[in-house]
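Hi all, posting the design record for the shared folder.

TITLE: backbone redesign
STEP: 1 of 1
STRUCTURE INPUT:
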């Protein structure tokens, strides 16, 4: 028996494979995080069926669709067998919860699968994400600040390993948030996927009442951090990390040159360095490029930190009364323990403020229209028009 369920129910299911039955092109543009793509109609076939629907009518379009998919049905069922073993539970969705997911659901139900189908499809999921990321977040942010190389990402990951709720924006964006942010990294996700990943992590954090996040600008490469996340960072607890320059140089060196194709990374570093002319001038950029090309990476990194990153971010390089907590990260594990104790002692920790009309004093708008008074710019004060980012919230 096919069970039609809401997006919320689908995301809460403890087991099963989540399958997007739309075309590979639709899937690439955005999907529910964790979903796999088993297309009923591929890009070309979907286009042909759509054209037939407009020119001839729905009945002929349905018959054409059946002709196109029939030869693949046996192989499709085998793919579901392989991916859904051992319980054979499958959660299906298409664009609006229409004929594509209905057809696959009926086929799999007939073949003995435990079939769930998301009502409203991916469109309903996007509506839910838009609503959540258009109002005030029902969580208190603990924002990690610090100069480049102090170990902010490492600290966040170790805190996540200890069970702390962490929103690692750079990891989700596959971008380090600077002019050198893509060196040695694979492509970033589309904007809609990025928003879906943020929504997933924040929903997971709700029972804890707080989330830890690194201070970021509104843009990570070509991706836009949703305004409510920026607002939460602006209003959150502030933690400053610091470490000696020598340690920061080594950590930055490890991040940009280790574990990847070093020759390719050097090429990317030199290319990215050219964009710093307006900040450093031609002479300094030429000197920096020569250091990189000559393999003097330690000197190049120290140059970047002292001449570019540190003046740009202007963070203190030691304890500061302007922050709620100051932490020396020379010993990363000790720093993690200090932050863990700080967060555990916050009044908001393990005191969830669930969003929505049904759950108390924090609400987000059901219609996704957003709230008034959003704080412009990023955590570090940079600004970006959402219209400049393709596929951003509201679409």
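Okay, here is what came back for every position:
SEQUENCE:
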């Amino acid at each position: 028996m096919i069970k039609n369920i809401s997006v919320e129910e689908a995301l809460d299911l403890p087991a099963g494979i989540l399958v997007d039955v739309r075309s590979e092109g639709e899937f690439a543009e955005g999907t529910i995080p964790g979903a796999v793509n088993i297309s009923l109609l591929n890009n070309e076939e979907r286009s042909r069926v759509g054209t037939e629907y407009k020119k001839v009518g729905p009945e002929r379009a349905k018959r054409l669709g059946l002709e196109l998919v029939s030869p693949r049905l046996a192989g499709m069922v085998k793919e579901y067998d392989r991916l859904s073993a051992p319980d054979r539970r499958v959660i299906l969705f298409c664009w609006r919860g229409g004929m594509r997911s209905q057809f696959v659901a009926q086929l799999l139900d007939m073949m003995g699968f435990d079939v769930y189908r998301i009502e409203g499809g991916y469109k309903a999921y996007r509506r839910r994400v838009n609503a959540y990321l258009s109002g005030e977040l029902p969580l208190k942010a603990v924002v990690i600040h610090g100069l480049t190389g102090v170990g902010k990402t490492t600290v966040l990951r170790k805190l996540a390993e200890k069970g702390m709720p962490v929103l690692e924006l750079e990891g989700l964006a596959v971008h380090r948030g600077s002019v050198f942010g893509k060196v040695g990294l694979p492509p970033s996700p589309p904007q809609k996927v990025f928003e879906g990943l943020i929504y997933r992590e924040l929903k997971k954090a709700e029972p804890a009442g707080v989330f830890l996040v690194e201070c970021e600008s509104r843009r990570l490469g070509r991706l836009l951090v949703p305004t409510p996340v920026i607002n939460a960072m602006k209003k959150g607890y502030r933690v400053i990390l610091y470490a000696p320059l020598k340690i920061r140089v080594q950590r930055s060196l490890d991040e940009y040159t280790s574990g990847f194709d070093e020759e390719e990374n050097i090429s990317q570093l030199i290319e990215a360095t050219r964009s710093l002319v307006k900040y450093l001038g031609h002479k300094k950029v030429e000197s920096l490029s020569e250091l990189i090309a000559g393999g003097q990476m330690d000197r190049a990194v120290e140059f970047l930190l002292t001449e570019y990153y540190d003046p740009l971010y202007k963070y203190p390089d030691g304890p500061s009364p302007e922050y709620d907590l100051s932490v020396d990260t020379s010993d990363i594990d000790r720093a993690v323990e200090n932050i863990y104790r700080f967060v555990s002692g916050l009044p908001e920790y393990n005191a969830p403020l669930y969003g929505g009309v049904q759950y108390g004093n924090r609400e987000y708008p059901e219609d996704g229209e957003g709230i008034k008074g959003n704080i412009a710019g990023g955590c570090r004060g940079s600004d970006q028009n959402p219209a400049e980012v393709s596929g951003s919230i509201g679409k």
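COMMENT: The longest strand covers residues 140-146.
Let me know if anyone wants the other runs.
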